[in-house]
Amino acid sequence: MEIKAPVFPESIADGEVAMWHVAEGDWVTRDQSLVDIETDKVVLEVVAPSSGRLTKIVKNTGALVVSEELLAEFEAGESGGESVGESEVNQPHLGSESTNIDESGIGELVIDEPVIDESPKPVSSEQAPAYPASSPSARKLAEETGLDLSRVKGTGKSGLVTKEDVIQAVAKAQHIGAKPLALQSEQEDHPSEGTERIERRVPMTRLRASIAKRLVEAQQTAAMLTTFNEVDMSAIMDLRSRYKGEFQAAHNGTRLGFMSFFVRACTEALKRFPAVNASIDGSDIVYHGYQDIGVAVSSPRGLVVPIIRDTDSLTLAEVEEQIRRFGEKAEAGKLTLDEMAGGTFTISNGGVFGSMLSTPILTPPQTAILGMHKIQERPVALNGEVVIRPMMYLALSYDHRLIDGQEAVRFLVTVKEFLEEPARILLDI
Q1: In this structure, how many other beta carbons lie within 10 angstroms of the beta carbon of residue 168?
Q2: Collapsing DSSP states into helix, strand and coil, what is residue 167?
C-alpha cells in the first residue's frame, strides 16, 4: 500500500515534508498521524489509512513533494504481541508526574523527582528519544520554543499533550522569568557557559517565507498609498454595553464584539465603491459582485487570513461566530486551504496588540486593506466644546493604479460614518 501526499489546490505547486512522526518499521493505528506536509499556507497531516506497519519512507524530512506524490510504503495488518501502540511508544520515561488543574482546564506542570536507575544499560545509537503522547502541532511548537515535552502534562484525551498545553507551559515559564526547560538543562550541564550570549538559527518556515515574498511583491508591483482617518467609537461601545447580555443569550453564547460592526460597515462601503472591492488581473480589472472579507488572525505559525464569505448576507451574530471559529482553528493549526483562499478585501486589527497607528500592506490581488487600531480616550472638539471620547485611528492602504485618492478617502469616510452611526447599517442609508 502506498502513502501519498494530499491533493494540493492549483494555487499551491508543492509542499515540504516537515516532520515524520513515525519511523520505518513502526506499527501504527488507523487515522494515526504519520507525517506533516507544510505548504505556503497551511500544514497538512497525512494519516494512516488503516492499522499496519510503515515499511519504507520514500520522502525524508525537508524533501519537496507535489500532489499525490509517493511518501512511503505501508503494509496493512495488526501488530504482533511484542509491538506496542502509539500511546505506549510515546509515553515519557522520566518518573512520576502529577498535575494541578486550574479553572481553564490547562494542566499546570508539576514534576516529581524521578527514580534513577544507576545500573549500566546498553544504549543503541539508533534509539529514538522518548516523547509523551502529543499532537503534531504540539511537538512542532515545542521544538521551535525549546520546550521539553516530557515535562508537560497533557490535558487532551488519554493524557495527550495539545498545542494549548505547550502554549500555556511556555507562557507560564515566561511569566515567571524562566528559561525554556531545554535551555535550563543545557546550562545546568555547563554552568560556566551560563553567562554567554546565546543565538539560535532556525530555517524560515514556508508560511513565513510565503508571507515575506507576497509582501515584497505587493510593495514592488502595486502603487500603494495609505490614507488615515479617526472614528469615535462611543456609539458602538454604548450599543455593545447595553445589549451584549441579551445578544449572547439570544445567539447561543456568541459574544458581541467590535469586529462584526467593522465587517458590516466595510461591506456596505464596498457596495458603494466597487473599485475598492475589485482586483487587478494582468491588464484587466475584475469587479466582484460579492463581498468576501478576510480577517487577519494570529496563530503560532504567524498571521493568517481566513475569509468570511458573502458578508452581505450575514448577521452580526453570524459574523462573530465565524470569527470565533476561525480564531480557534488558527490556534490549533486546523484552518483549511479553502478557508483562506480568495477574498476581495481584508481587515487587520493591530489594536488588539496595542498598535496606535500603522500602514497595512496589501494582499495581492486585492486592491485595498483596512487597518484597525487601539481604542484610546482622547480630547476632541464637539459642538464647540472639548470632550473626552474613545477614538480609534483607521488606515486604508490601497492600490493607486486602480483606486483614486478621492475614492479611497470617500470610502474611508463612509466606513467612519457607519461606525459612528450604526443605525445607518440597519436602515441602509
Answers
A1: 20
A2: helix
Q: pLDDT value at position 92?
A: 44
Task: With H, G, I as helix, E, B as strand and everything else as coil, classify residue 382.
Answer: strand
How many residues belong to the chain?
Answer: 429
Determine whether 404 is an active site residue: yes
Q: How confident is the model at residue 321 (pLDDT cuts 50, 70, 90)?
A: very high
Share of the chain above pLDDT 90, in %: 35
Burial of 219 (0-12, 13-18, 19+ CB in 10 A): exposed
Q: Mean pLDDT over residues 317-331, rounded?
A: 91
Catalytic pick from 31, 93, 112, 400?
Answer: 400
**Which distant-in-sequence residues (6+ apart) come within 8 Å of 269 by Cβ?**
276, 411, 414, 415, 418
Closest CA to 396 of 414, 409, 381, 387: 409
Q: Please tell me which residue in 31, 310, 338, 404 is annotated as part of the active site.
A: 404
Please report, as a single letter, which amino acid is at residue 372.
Answer: M
pLDDT for 101 equals 38
Can you spell out the DSSP letters for 62-131? T-EE-TT-EEEEEEES---TT---HHHHT---S--EEEEE-TT-PEEEEEPPPPP--S-----TTPPPP-
CA nearest to 308, candidates 288, 292, 296 = 292
Q: Are 17 and 35 in contact (CB under 8 A)?
A: yes
What is the model's pTM? 0.60
Alpha-carbon gap, residue 207 to 204, rounded angstroms: 8
Q: What is the pLDDT of residue 109?
A: 40
Q: List the domains of the chain with CATH numbers.
A: 2-76 (2.40.50.100), 90-113+129-189 (4.10.320.10), 223-427 (3.30.559.10)
Cell numbers linked to 83:
509491538
**Residue 315 above 80 pLDDT?**
yes
